[in-house]
């Protein structure tokens, strides 16, 4: 799976790309990430890509020409243009169903905004799918792009080992409940005991305990998820 990221801050991705799971996936050629600096498509000598909003107001708007030309230029690289996604607080909110749909593409082109966003004509001309990661304001789309990459690569075959298999993850199609509580050694810490059943070796009982624990957690923390299960 190939990702192309267009951003004014490509350096933000360097630490992320060297984290273990992604680093391994890149080394094994399961995932490719190509970073592109929007400034490289600027036409003026100061590499300026933003300007003041028509109509006044605070902040700066990213200009249409370098953005459209950057996306078009990047989409001609590689074997297919890929699916274009713009990260913006005005987009549809990312969830696991959206992630599952995105993971079916062989190439995603992620356009990260900054400041007060892009000139509207970028959307009018390129018709990207617009995505947000939640109802809060980030300084730019870069952290959201990393969330998209991080969630999508988990579904790329071979990226996770069998042990970390993704289809039982919370929110995935096969499981809309929250994960159950987990424990490791020691058996007792500051007077808090590991539930006895988990030490019993009785695997059907352990599975039943975990199922019950998932339901209780979901009911108290995210009852909306149970409602959704009932609908489906
Ligand atoms: Cl994609 N961008 C920005 N700037 N803020 C956000 C977001 C995206 N998603 C949630 N907040």
UniProtKB/TrEMBL annotation:
Q: Which reaction does it catalyse?
A: guanosine(37) in tRNA + S-adenosyl-L-methionine = N(1)-methylguanosine(37) in tRNA + S-adenosyl-L-homocysteine + H(+)
What are the residue boundaries of the tRNA methyltransferase TRMD/TRM10-type domain, all occurrences included? 1-227
Asked if the record carries the keyword Methyltransferase, the reply is yes
Q: Name one Pfam family in it.
A: tRNA_m1G_MT
Any Gene Ontology biological process = tRNA N1-guanine methylation
Keywords carried by this UniProt record = Cytoplasm, Methyltransferase, S-adenosyl-L-methionine, Transferase, tRNA processing
Chain intervals with Basic and acidic residues compositional bias? 212-232
The record, for Gene3D superfamilies, names: 3.40.1280.10, tRNA(m1g37)methyltransferase, domain 2
Q: What does this protein do?
A: Specifically methylates guanosine-37 in various tRNAs.
Q: Which family does it belong to?
A: Belongs to the RNA methyltransferase TrmD family.
Q: What is the protein named? A: tRNA (guanine-N(1)-)-methyltransferase
């Amino acid at each position: 799976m190939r990702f192309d990221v267009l951003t004014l801050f490509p350096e933000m991705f360097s630490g992320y790309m060297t984290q273990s799971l992604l680093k391994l996936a890149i080394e094994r050629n399961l995932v490719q990430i190509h970073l592109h600096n929007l400034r490289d498509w600027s036409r003026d000598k100061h590499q300026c890509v933003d300007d003041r909003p028509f109509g006044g107001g605070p902040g700066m708007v990213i200009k249409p020409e370098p953005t459209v030309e950057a996306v078009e230029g990047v989409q001609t690289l590689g074997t297919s243009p890929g699916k274009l996604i713009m990260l913006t607080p005005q987009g549809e909110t990312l969830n696991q169903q959206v992630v599952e749909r995105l993971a079916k593409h062989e190439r995603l082109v992620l356009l990260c905004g900054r400041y007060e966003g892009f000139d509207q004509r970028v959307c009018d001309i390129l018709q990207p799918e617009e995505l947000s990661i939640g109802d809060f304001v980030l300084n730019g789309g870069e952290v959201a792009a990393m969330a998209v990459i991080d969630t999508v690569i988990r579904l790329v075959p071979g990226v996770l080992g069998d042990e970390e298999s993704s289809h039982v993850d919370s929110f995935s199609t096969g499981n809309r409940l929250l994960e159950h509580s987990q424990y490791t050694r020691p058996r007792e810490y500051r007077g808090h005991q590991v539930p006895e059943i988990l030490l019993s070796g009785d695997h059907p009982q352990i599975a039943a305990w975990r199922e019950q624990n998932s339901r209780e957690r979901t009911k108290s923390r995210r009852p909306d998820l149970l409602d959704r299960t009932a609908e489906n």
